[in-house]
Specification:
Layout lengths: L1 E3 L2 E4 L8 H13 L8 H7 L4 H12 L5 H17 L7 H10 L3 E9 H10 L8 E5 L12 H10 L6 E5 L2 H9 L3 E4 L15 E2 L7 E3 L4
Parallel strand pairs: 1-8, 2-3, 2-5, 3-4, 5-6, 6-7
Helix pairs in contact: 1-4, 3-4, 4-6
């Protein structure tokens, strides 16, 4: 698909990198001593929501006393290595390069912790192309997805109005956040999210290879 925009705001997990698979396996390692069980289906339903919410809900659903903050700390300790050397999703690097070369501003807006997202951007070797990184822990972000905060803060840092921007997402939750921010929203569903129900108003494509964005004529 061909569209014009002055800025593109990317989700990270499941879109630019396959961190969802890594996270699923890491969480199960952390949960194993507690007796809690995280199935693929349950994890898939959680994608796009804050991580702490998952552990709080699992505690209630399975009647097991879990400390969400402790799980988050141990999960992030194990995930650091992956985020420092992530595997890019098909088409991710080519698209970022083409946008950068065209002078289109780029941001990453993610519900993952800021330090992990920063590591991923560095690990992908795209720091020179990414103009803003807005994630969990950013001082201007009050609510995570599906609230629009992450996208609105990213647009503010880029200096671009929502009508001149595009969001690219892989989850229904992230898509709702992008739409709420007033962004045209492209969805590249991952293996984890392709069976989910997405909100009306998004445009689906199979791969990031299928996205072609050119700048507005100035």
């Amino acid at each position: 698909m061909d569209i014009t925009a002055d800025a593109v705001v990317f989700d990270l997990d499941g879109l630019l990198i396959d961190s969802e698979t890594a996270c699923f396996h890491v969480i199960n390692r952390v949960l194993e001593p507690t007796g809690a069980v995280l199935t693929r289906e349950r994890f898939a339903r959680h994608i796009g929501h804050p991580a702490r919410e998952l552990y709080t809900n699992l505690s209630v659903e399975q009647g097991i006393d879990l400390d969400p903050d402790d799980i988050l700390v141990r999960r992030d300790e194990l995930l650091v290595a992956y985020y420092e050397n992530p595997e890019p999703m098909p088409g991710a690097l080519d698209l970022i390069t083409s946008l950068h070369d065209a002078g289109i501003k780029i941001a990453v807006a993610s519900s993952s912790h800021q330090h992990l997202v920063n590591r991923a951007v560095t690990g992908l070797d795209v720091s020179h192309a990414v103009d803003a990184v807005v994630a969990h822990g950013h001082p201007e972000v009050v609510h995570l997805k599906p609230a629009p905060d992450l996208y609105l803060v990213a647009l503010a840092e880029l200096g671009v109005e929502p009508t001149h921007g595009v969001a690219i997402e892989d989850s229904p939750t992230g898509s709702r956040a992008a739409l709420a921010a007033g962004l045209r929203t492209i969805v590249v569903a991952s293996d984890w999210t392709r069976d989910r129900e997405f909100p009306d108003g998004v445009t689906h494509v199979t791969s990031l290879h299928d996205v072609r964005i050119t700048p507005h004529t100035r």
